[in-house]
Design brief:
Layout: E1 34-40, E2 53-54, H1 58-65, H2 72-81, E3 86-92, E4 102-109, E5 117-121, E6 124-128, H3 133-140, E7 147-153, E8 156-161, E9 173-177, E10 182-190, H4 199-203, E11 212-215, H5 220-234, E12 243-249, H6 255-259, E13 267-273, H7 279-296, E14 306-307, H8 318-326, E15 331-332, E16 340-344, H9 365-385, E17 389-390, E18 403-404, H10 406-424, E19 428-429, H11 431-435, E20 439-442, E21 450-453, E22 457-458
Parallel strand pairs: 1-3, 1-11, 11-12, 12-13, 17-18
Antiparallel strand pairs: 2-3, 4-8, 4-10, 5-6, 5-9, 7-8, 14-16, 15-16, 19-22, 20-21
Length: 482
Amino acid sequence: MPIPFTQIPAALPVPGQYQEADPSLAGGSGEIRRALIIAHGSGAGTAPAGKPVRVTSELRAAALFGAGSRAAIPARAFLAVNRTEECRVLPVDAPQAATAWRKKFAVSAASAQQGAVTITVCGARIDAEAVAAAVVARINGGLWLPVEAETLGGGEFSVAAVVPGTGGNAVAVEIVSEAAGVTVAEGETFPGSQTANIEPLLRGLGNVRCGCVASDFSDRDNVAAPADELTDRFTALRQIGGRAFVAVTGDMEAVPAEASGVNNPHIVPVPRMENPQLPGEWAARWCAAACRVLADDPAANTHNLAVPGLSSGSEYDVDSRRTLLAAGIATYRADATGNVPVERLVTGYTENADGGRDTSFLDIQVPETLDAVRAHINAEAARRFGRWKPASTDGNFGSGARVMTAGIFRPFLCELYPEVFIKQRRRCRDFDGYKNTIVVEIGPGSKTRLEYIHQPNLTGRFLIGAGPLQFRQITGGNGNET
Protein backbone atom coordinates (compact mmCIF):
# COMPACT_ATOMS: atom_id res chain seq x y z
CA MET A 1 0.00 0.00 0.00
CA PRO A 2 1.28 3.52 -0.69
CA ILE A 3 2.29 5.32 2.53
CA PRO A 4 1.20 8.97 2.69
CA PHE A 5 3.87 11.56 3.52
CA THR A 6 3.39 15.25 4.23
CA GLN A 7 6.99 16.36 4.85
CA ILE A 8 9.28 13.86 3.13
CA PRO A 9 9.22 14.31 -0.67
CA ALA A 10 9.23 11.18 -2.82
CA ALA A 11 12.16 12.52 -4.87
CA LEU A 12 14.44 13.24 -1.87
CA PRO A 13 18.04 12.45 -3.03
CA VAL A 14 19.86 13.02 0.27
CA PRO A 15 20.77 9.79 2.13
CA GLY A 16 19.53 9.44 5.70
CA GLN A 17 16.77 8.17 7.99
CA TYR A 18 13.72 10.46 8.10
CA GLN A 19 10.55 10.17 10.19
CA GLU A 20 7.61 12.54 10.29
CA ALA A 21 5.90 13.24 13.60
CA ASP A 22 2.19 12.66 12.96
CA PRO A 23 -0.13 13.70 15.82
CA SER A 24 -3.32 12.57 14.06
CA LEU A 25 -3.73 9.48 16.26
CA ALA A 26 -2.80 11.16 19.55
CA GLY A 27 -5.29 12.78 21.88
CA GLY A 28 -8.37 14.58 20.71
CA SER A 29 -9.49 18.02 19.74
CA GLY A 30 -11.84 20.13 21.79
CA GLU A 31 -13.46 23.53 21.79
CA ILE A 32 -12.68 26.27 24.30
CA ARG A 33 -16.03 27.00 25.90
CA ARG A 34 -16.44 30.74 26.27
CA ALA A 35 -19.23 32.61 27.97
CA LEU A 36 -20.10 36.16 26.93
CA ILE A 37 -21.94 38.68 29.11
CA ILE A 38 -23.52 41.66 27.34
CA ALA A 39 -24.33 44.60 29.62
CA HIS A 40 -23.80 48.29 30.29
CA GLY A 41 -20.52 49.45 31.78
CA SER A 42 -20.26 52.76 33.63
CA GLY A 43 -18.05 55.76 33.04
CA ALA A 44 -15.87 54.69 35.97
CA GLY A 45 -14.68 51.58 34.13
CA THR A 46 -11.48 51.36 32.10
CA ALA A 47 -12.61 48.87 29.44
CA PRO A 48 -13.56 50.39 26.07
CA ALA A 49 -17.13 49.72 24.97
CA GLY A 50 -17.82 47.27 22.19
CA LYS A 51 -14.78 45.04 22.71
CA PRO A 52 -15.03 41.75 24.64
CA VAL A 53 -12.61 41.50 27.54
CA ARG A 54 -11.83 38.48 29.69
CA VAL A 55 -12.74 38.68 33.36
CA THR A 56 -11.06 36.44 35.92
CA SER A 57 -12.11 38.02 39.22
CA GLU A 58 -14.81 40.24 40.62
CA LEU A 59 -12.33 42.99 41.52
CA ARG A 60 -11.14 43.03 37.91
CA ALA A 61 -14.76 43.30 36.80
CA ALA A 62 -15.27 46.31 39.06
CA ALA A 63 -12.16 48.00 37.68
CA LEU A 64 -12.96 47.26 34.04
CA PHE A 65 -16.63 48.21 34.00
CA GLY A 66 -17.16 50.32 37.13
CA ALA A 67 -18.34 49.10 40.52
CA GLY A 68 -22.09 48.64 40.59
CA SER A 69 -22.40 48.73 36.79
CA ARG A 70 -24.75 46.44 34.91
CA ALA A 71 -21.69 44.68 33.45
CA ALA A 72 -19.73 44.18 36.69
CA ILE A 73 -22.63 42.67 38.65
CA PRO A 74 -23.43 39.85 36.13
CA ALA A 75 -19.71 39.11 35.74
CA ARG A 76 -19.39 38.72 39.49
CA ALA A 77 -22.49 36.52 39.54
CA PHE A 78 -21.17 34.28 36.74
CA LEU A 79 -17.81 33.80 38.45
CA ALA A 80 -19.55 32.93 41.71
CA VAL A 81 -21.18 29.94 39.97
CA ASN A 82 -18.69 28.93 37.27
CA ARG A 83 -14.92 29.51 37.09
CA THR A 84 -14.26 26.71 34.60
CA GLU A 85 -15.54 28.36 31.45
CA GLU A 86 -13.75 31.42 30.12
CA CYS A 87 -15.83 34.47 31.02
CA ARG A 88 -15.79 37.47 28.73
CA VAL A 89 -17.81 40.66 28.97
CA LEU A 90 -18.93 42.90 26.12
CA PRO A 91 -19.42 46.33 27.76
CA VAL A 92 -22.01 48.59 26.18
CA ASP A 93 -22.13 52.38 26.46
CA ALA A 94 -25.43 54.01 27.35
CA PRO A 95 -26.83 56.43 24.73
CA GLN A 96 -25.51 59.95 25.20
CA ALA A 97 -28.97 61.40 25.81
CA ALA A 98 -30.03 58.61 28.21
CA THR A 99 -31.33 59.54 31.63
CA ALA A 100 -30.95 57.43 34.75
CA TRP A 101 -33.70 55.92 36.85
CA ARG A 102 -34.06 58.05 39.99
CA LYS A 103 -36.21 57.94 43.09
CA LYS A 104 -36.67 60.59 45.80
CA PHE A 105 -37.02 59.99 49.55
CA ALA A 106 -37.89 62.39 52.36
CA VAL A 107 -36.96 61.92 56.02
CA SER A 108 -39.03 63.41 58.81
CA ALA A 109 -38.38 63.15 62.55
CA ALA A 110 -40.55 64.04 65.54
CA SER A 111 -39.45 63.02 69.03
CA ALA A 112 -37.11 60.62 67.28
CA GLN A 113 -35.63 57.74 69.22
CA GLN A 114 -32.48 55.84 68.44
CA GLY A 115 -33.05 53.04 65.99
CA ALA A 116 -32.17 51.88 62.51
CA VAL A 117 -33.11 52.43 58.91
CA THR A 118 -33.25 49.31 56.77
CA ILE A 119 -32.21 49.69 53.15
CA THR A 120 -33.01 47.03 50.60
CA VAL A 121 -31.46 47.32 47.14
CA CYS A 122 -32.35 44.65 44.57
CA GLY A 123 -33.20 42.20 47.33
CA ALA A 124 -30.08 42.85 49.46
CA ARG A 125 -30.57 44.53 52.86
CA ILE A 126 -28.25 47.22 54.27
CA ASP A 127 -28.57 48.64 57.80
CA ALA A 128 -27.70 52.26 58.62
CA GLU A 129 -27.86 53.76 62.11
CA ALA A 130 -28.50 57.37 61.14
CA VAL A 131 -30.82 58.98 58.72
CA ALA A 132 -30.61 61.00 55.44
CA ALA A 133 -26.86 61.76 55.12
CA ALA A 134 -25.90 58.46 56.73
CA VAL A 135 -28.21 56.58 54.37
CA VAL A 136 -26.62 58.32 51.39
CA ALA A 137 -23.12 57.57 52.68
CA ARG A 138 -24.00 53.93 53.32
CA ILE A 139 -25.44 53.43 49.81
CA ASN A 140 -22.47 55.12 48.14
CA GLY A 141 -20.12 52.96 50.17
CA GLY A 142 -21.54 49.74 48.71
CA LEU A 143 -19.10 48.51 46.05
CA TRP A 144 -21.55 46.22 44.26
CA LEU A 145 -24.73 48.28 44.47
CA PRO A 146 -26.22 49.34 41.09
CA VAL A 147 -27.31 52.69 42.57
CA GLU A 148 -25.76 55.85 44.00
CA ALA A 149 -27.34 58.35 46.36
CA GLU A 150 -27.32 62.13 46.71
CA THR A 151 -28.48 64.46 49.50
CA LEU A 152 -30.93 67.14 48.39
CA GLY A 153 -31.16 69.15 51.64
CA GLY A 154 -34.08 69.56 53.98
CA GLY A 155 -34.03 65.89 54.95
CA GLU A 156 -34.47 64.75 51.35
CA PHE A 157 -32.21 62.53 49.29
CA SER A 158 -32.42 60.65 46.02
CA VAL A 159 -31.22 57.28 44.79
CA ALA A 160 -30.31 56.84 41.11
CA ALA A 161 -29.11 54.03 38.89
CA VAL A 162 -25.36 54.01 38.28
CA VAL A 163 -25.88 53.50 34.54
CA PRO A 164 -28.39 55.69 32.67
CA GLY A 165 -31.00 54.22 30.37
CA THR A 166 -34.11 52.07 30.64
CA GLY A 167 -32.13 49.19 32.11
CA GLY A 168 -32.06 50.98 35.45
CA ASN A 169 -35.84 50.76 35.66
CA ALA A 170 -35.39 47.19 36.94
CA VAL A 171 -33.69 48.50 40.11
CA ALA A 172 -35.74 47.98 43.27
CA VAL A 173 -34.95 50.20 46.26
CA GLU A 174 -36.85 50.06 49.53
CA ILE A 175 -35.94 52.16 52.61
CA VAL A 176 -37.86 51.56 55.83
CA SER A 177 -37.33 53.27 59.18
CA GLU A 178 -37.36 51.03 62.23
CA ALA A 179 -36.74 53.93 64.63
CA ALA A 180 -39.67 55.36 66.56
CA GLY A 181 -40.47 58.90 65.49
CA VAL A 182 -38.55 58.64 62.22
CA THR A 183 -40.25 58.09 58.89
CA VAL A 184 -38.76 57.73 55.43
CA ALA A 185 -41.34 58.52 52.79
CA GLU A 186 -40.97 57.57 49.15
CA GLY A 187 -41.22 60.44 46.74
CA GLU A 188 -41.47 60.73 42.99
CA THR A 189 -39.83 58.12 40.75
CA PHE A 190 -38.26 59.18 37.46
CA PRO A 191 -37.81 56.27 35.03
CA GLY A 192 -34.70 56.00 32.93
CA SER A 193 -34.94 56.73 29.23
CA GLN A 194 -33.37 55.39 26.03
CA THR A 195 -31.87 52.00 25.29
CA ALA A 196 -28.60 51.12 23.59
CA ASN A 197 -28.57 49.20 20.32
CA ILE A 198 -26.36 46.13 20.69
CA GLU A 199 -26.78 44.82 17.12
CA PRO A 200 -23.62 46.45 15.65
CA LEU A 201 -21.59 45.27 18.64
CA LEU A 202 -22.68 41.68 18.02
CA ARG A 203 -21.71 41.92 14.36
CA GLY A 204 -18.33 43.24 15.48
CA LEU A 205 -17.62 39.97 17.30
CA GLY A 206 -16.83 38.35 13.97
CA ASN A 207 -16.21 34.62 14.37
CA VAL A 208 -15.20 34.65 18.03
CA ARG A 209 -16.85 31.56 19.52
CA CYS A 210 -19.27 32.16 22.39
CA GLY A 211 -20.94 28.93 23.42
CA CYS A 212 -23.19 30.64 25.95
CA VAL A 213 -24.29 34.25 26.30
CA ALA A 214 -25.96 36.13 29.17
CA SER A 215 -27.62 39.38 28.14
CA ASP A 216 -28.77 42.14 30.46
CA PHE A 217 -30.98 43.50 27.67
CA SER A 218 -34.52 42.17 27.53
CA ASP A 219 -36.31 44.72 25.33
CA ARG A 220 -37.69 43.36 22.07
CA ASP A 221 -35.08 44.86 19.71
CA ASN A 222 -32.11 43.82 21.85
CA VAL A 223 -33.44 40.26 22.15
CA ALA A 224 -33.97 40.08 18.39
CA ALA A 225 -30.35 41.15 17.77
CA PRO A 226 -28.66 38.17 19.50
CA ALA A 227 -31.38 35.91 18.10
CA ASP A 228 -30.45 36.93 14.55
CA GLU A 229 -26.71 36.71 15.23
CA LEU A 230 -26.92 33.28 16.87
CA THR A 231 -29.18 31.98 14.09
CA ASP A 232 -26.58 33.06 11.55
CA ARG A 233 -23.80 31.46 13.61
CA PHE A 234 -25.73 28.17 13.63
CA THR A 235 -25.87 28.03 9.82
CA ALA A 236 -23.77 25.60 7.78
CA LEU A 237 -21.40 28.33 6.56
CA ARG A 238 -20.40 29.46 10.08
CA GLN A 239 -21.09 26.56 12.47
CA ILE A 240 -20.14 28.40 15.66
CA GLY A 241 -23.44 28.07 17.45
CA GLY A 242 -24.31 29.34 20.91
CA ARG A 243 -27.29 29.99 23.16
CA ALA A 244 -28.22 33.27 24.88
CA PHE A 245 -29.91 33.50 28.29
CA VAL A 246 -32.26 36.45 28.78
CA ALA A 247 -34.32 37.21 31.88
CA VAL A 248 -38.01 37.91 31.32
CA THR A 249 -39.71 40.26 33.76
CA GLY A 250 -43.31 40.89 34.73
CA ASP A 251 -46.34 39.02 36.03
CA MET A 252 -47.91 35.79 34.83
CA GLU A 253 -50.52 37.68 32.83
CA ALA A 254 -48.07 39.58 30.63
CA VAL A 255 -44.81 37.62 30.45
CA PRO A 256 -45.89 34.52 28.43
CA ALA A 257 -47.47 36.66 25.71
CA GLU A 258 -44.47 39.00 25.61
CA ALA A 259 -41.93 36.16 25.47
CA SER A 260 -43.79 34.35 22.71
CA GLY A 261 -42.47 36.96 20.28
CA VAL A 262 -38.93 35.56 20.62
CA ASN A 263 -39.55 32.23 18.83
CA ASN A 264 -35.88 31.33 18.39
CA PRO A 265 -34.08 28.07 19.24
CA HIS A 266 -30.96 29.93 20.40
CA ILE A 267 -32.61 32.24 22.96
CA VAL A 268 -33.30 30.80 26.43
CA PRO A 269 -35.79 33.00 28.33
CA VAL A 270 -35.43 32.51 32.10
CA PRO A 271 -38.25 33.60 34.43
CA ARG A 272 -37.07 36.45 36.62
CA MET A 273 -40.69 37.62 36.63
CA GLU A 274 -41.05 40.07 39.57
CA ASN A 275 -37.88 39.10 41.44
CA PRO A 276 -35.94 42.11 42.83
CA GLN A 277 -32.51 40.85 41.69
CA LEU A 278 -31.23 42.46 38.48
CA PRO A 279 -32.09 40.84 35.13
CA GLY A 280 -28.41 40.60 34.21
CA GLU A 281 -27.58 38.76 37.43
CA TRP A 282 -30.52 36.40 36.97
CA ALA A 283 -29.48 35.57 33.39
CA ALA A 284 -25.78 35.26 34.27
CA ARG A 285 -26.34 32.76 37.07
CA TRP A 286 -28.62 30.56 34.94
CA CYS A 287 -26.11 30.79 32.10
CA ALA A 288 -23.16 29.89 34.34
CA ALA A 289 -24.85 26.83 35.84
CA ALA A 290 -26.18 25.48 32.53
CA CYS A 291 -22.99 26.22 30.61
CA ARG A 292 -20.89 24.19 33.06
CA VAL A 293 -23.06 21.07 32.63
CA LEU A 294 -23.64 21.33 28.88
CA ALA A 295 -19.96 21.98 28.16
CA ASP A 296 -19.16 18.46 29.37
CA ASP A 297 -22.25 16.84 27.85
CA PRO A 298 -24.55 18.84 25.55
CA ALA A 299 -27.22 16.15 25.92
CA ALA A 300 -27.13 16.21 29.74
CA ASN A 301 -30.38 16.31 31.68
CA THR A 302 -30.53 19.69 33.44
CA HIS A 303 -33.57 18.81 35.55
CA ASN A 304 -32.90 19.75 39.20
CA LEU A 305 -29.71 21.59 38.24
CA ALA A 306 -29.11 24.07 41.09
CA VAL A 307 -28.65 27.76 40.25
CA PRO A 308 -26.95 29.20 43.36
CA GLY A 309 -27.31 32.73 44.63
CA LEU A 310 -30.83 33.50 43.46
CA SER A 311 -33.78 34.22 45.72
CA SER A 312 -36.62 32.27 44.18
CA GLY A 313 -39.45 33.48 46.38
CA SER A 314 -42.67 31.54 46.00
CA GLU A 315 -43.01 28.67 43.56
CA TYR A 316 -45.37 28.82 40.60
CA ASP A 317 -48.09 26.19 40.45
CA VAL A 318 -48.33 23.49 37.78
CA ASP A 319 -50.69 25.44 35.53
CA SER A 320 -48.43 28.51 35.61
CA ARG A 321 -45.32 26.47 34.81
CA ARG A 322 -47.14 24.74 31.97
CA THR A 323 -48.07 28.18 30.61
CA LEU A 324 -44.45 29.31 30.81
CA LEU A 325 -43.14 26.20 29.03
CA ALA A 326 -45.74 26.55 26.28
CA ALA A 327 -44.49 30.12 25.74
CA GLY A 328 -40.87 28.96 25.51
CA ILE A 329 -39.81 30.08 29.00
CA ALA A 330 -37.73 27.90 31.32
CA THR A 331 -39.18 26.88 34.68
CA TYR A 332 -37.78 26.29 38.16
CA ARG A 333 -38.85 24.94 41.53
CA ALA A 334 -38.20 26.56 44.91
CA ASP A 335 -36.26 24.67 47.57
CA ALA A 336 -35.44 25.19 51.23
CA THR A 337 -31.74 25.91 50.66
CA GLY A 338 -32.19 29.21 48.85
CA ASN A 339 -31.12 27.79 45.49
CA VAL A 340 -33.23 27.75 42.37
CA PRO A 341 -33.40 24.19 40.96
CA VAL A 342 -34.07 24.15 37.21
CA GLU A 343 -37.19 22.24 36.29
CA ARG A 344 -36.93 22.39 32.50
CA LEU A 345 -34.50 24.43 30.42
CA VAL A 346 -36.20 25.31 27.15
CA THR A 347 -35.57 27.66 24.25
CA GLY A 348 -37.88 30.35 22.94
CA TYR A 349 -38.71 28.36 19.79
CA THR A 350 -42.38 27.35 19.90
CA GLU A 351 -43.79 27.82 16.38
CA ASN A 352 -42.79 26.87 12.85
CA ALA A 353 -42.93 29.21 9.85
CA ASP A 354 -46.62 28.40 9.35
CA GLY A 355 -47.51 29.39 12.91
CA GLY A 356 -48.07 25.81 14.06
CA ARG A 357 -46.83 24.43 17.37
CA ASP A 358 -43.30 23.05 16.93
CA THR A 359 -41.37 21.29 19.72
CA SER A 360 -38.38 20.20 17.62
CA PHE A 361 -36.06 22.67 19.42
CA LEU A 362 -37.98 22.83 22.71
CA ASP A 363 -35.14 21.69 24.98
CA ILE A 364 -31.80 23.49 24.92
CA GLN A 365 -30.06 20.11 24.59
CA VAL A 366 -31.27 19.74 20.99
CA PRO A 367 -29.29 22.62 19.39
CA GLU A 368 -26.44 21.96 21.82
CA THR A 369 -26.20 18.30 20.73
CA LEU A 370 -26.54 19.14 17.03
CA ASP A 371 -23.65 21.57 17.37
CA ALA A 372 -21.53 18.92 19.09
CA VAL A 373 -22.33 16.12 16.62
CA ARG A 374 -21.69 18.33 13.63
CA ALA A 375 -18.44 19.69 15.04
CA HIS A 376 -17.09 16.21 15.79
CA ILE A 377 -17.89 14.87 12.32
CA ASN A 378 -16.33 17.91 10.67
CA ALA A 379 -13.17 17.78 12.79
CA GLU A 380 -12.72 14.04 12.30
CA ALA A 381 -13.34 14.24 8.54
CA ALA A 382 -10.80 17.08 8.22
CA ARG A 383 -8.26 15.12 10.26
CA ARG A 384 -8.63 11.91 8.25
CA PHE A 385 -9.42 13.15 4.76
CA GLY A 386 -7.94 16.65 4.62
CA ARG A 387 -5.76 16.02 1.54
CA TRP A 388 -7.81 13.42 -0.27
CA LYS A 389 -9.30 13.72 -3.76
CA PRO A 390 -12.84 12.63 -4.67
CA ALA A 391 -14.03 10.06 -7.21
CA SER A 392 -17.63 9.49 -8.24
CA THR A 393 -17.20 5.73 -8.52
CA ASP A 394 -15.98 3.09 -6.08
CA GLY A 395 -13.23 1.80 -8.34
CA ASN A 396 -10.29 -0.19 -7.02
CA PHE A 397 -7.71 2.52 -6.40
CA GLY A 398 -5.49 0.22 -4.42
CA SER A 399 -4.93 -0.15 -0.70
CA GLY A 400 -4.07 3.10 1.07
CA ALA A 401 -5.09 5.35 -1.83
CA ARG A 402 -6.23 8.82 -0.75
CA VAL A 403 -9.35 8.80 -2.89
CA MET A 404 -12.70 9.77 -1.35
CA THR A 405 -15.72 7.86 -2.59
CA ALA A 406 -19.21 7.22 -1.29
CA GLY A 407 -17.97 3.79 -0.28
CA ILE A 408 -15.36 5.42 2.00
CA PHE A 409 -17.45 8.14 3.60
CA ARG A 410 -20.50 6.04 4.42
CA PRO A 411 -18.49 3.56 6.56
CA PHE A 412 -16.82 6.57 8.19
CA LEU A 413 -20.22 7.82 9.42
CA CYS A 414 -21.24 4.29 10.39
CA GLU A 415 -18.08 4.02 12.48
CA LEU A 416 -18.51 7.29 14.35
CA TYR A 417 -22.19 6.88 15.16
CA PRO A 418 -22.12 3.74 17.35
CA GLU A 419 -18.62 4.15 18.76
CA VAL A 420 -18.58 7.88 19.51
CA PHE A 421 -22.13 9.21 19.58
CA ILE A 422 -23.74 6.16 21.22
CA LYS A 423 -21.12 4.36 23.34
CA GLN A 424 -18.70 7.16 24.25
CA ARG A 425 -20.83 10.30 24.32
CA ARG A 426 -24.38 8.84 24.64
CA ARG A 427 -25.81 11.61 22.51
CA CYS A 428 -27.58 9.47 19.92
CA ARG A 429 -29.40 6.15 19.66
CA ASP A 430 -30.69 3.53 17.17
CA PHE A 431 -27.71 2.76 14.94
CA ASP A 432 -29.70 0.34 12.78
CA GLY A 433 -32.20 3.07 11.96
CA TYR A 434 -29.45 5.65 11.44
CA LYS A 435 -27.38 3.69 8.93
CA ASN A 436 -30.45 3.19 6.72
CA THR A 437 -30.84 6.97 6.38
CA ILE A 438 -27.33 7.63 5.03
CA VAL A 439 -27.02 8.69 1.40
CA VAL A 440 -23.57 9.68 0.07
CA GLU A 441 -22.64 10.82 -3.43
CA ILE A 442 -20.21 13.05 -5.27
CA GLY A 443 -21.95 16.21 -6.35
CA PRO A 444 -23.27 15.99 -9.94
CA GLY A 445 -20.73 17.45 -12.35
CA SER A 446 -18.31 18.24 -9.50
CA LYS A 447 -14.77 17.04 -8.88
CA THR A 448 -14.48 18.66 -5.44
CA ARG A 449 -17.79 18.26 -3.62
CA LEU A 450 -19.08 15.27 -1.65
CA GLU A 451 -22.73 15.44 -0.61
CA TYR A 452 -24.42 13.36 2.05
CA ILE A 453 -27.55 13.19 4.16
CA HIS A 454 -27.90 11.44 7.49
CA GLN A 455 -30.47 11.48 10.27
CA PRO A 456 -29.03 11.12 13.79
CA ASN A 457 -31.60 10.07 16.39
CA LEU A 458 -30.86 12.21 19.45
CA THR A 459 -31.30 10.98 23.00
CA GLY A 460 -33.98 12.62 25.12
CA ARG A 461 -34.18 13.62 28.79
CA PHE A 462 -35.98 11.64 31.48
CA LEU A 463 -38.33 14.33 32.75
CA ILE A 464 -41.72 12.70 33.19
CA GLY A 465 -42.79 9.42 34.74
CA ALA A 466 -46.47 8.59 34.35
CA GLY A 467 -48.45 5.46 35.19
CA PRO A 468 -51.74 4.37 36.75
CA LEU A 469 -51.59 3.22 40.37
CA GLN A 470 -53.98 0.25 40.31
CA PHE A 471 -54.30 -0.86 43.90
CA ARG A 472 -56.09 -3.91 45.24
CA GLN A 473 -57.70 -4.83 48.53
CA ILE A 474 -57.20 -8.45 49.55
CA THR A 475 -60.22 -10.20 51.03
CA GLY A 476 -60.15 -13.15 53.44
CA GLY A 477 -61.61 -16.58 52.82
CA ASN A 478 -64.86 -15.63 54.59
CA GLY A 479 -65.38 -12.69 52.20
CA ASN A 480 -64.56 -10.09 54.83
CA GLU A 481 -62.06 -7.33 53.96
CA THR A 482 -58.80 -7.39 55.88
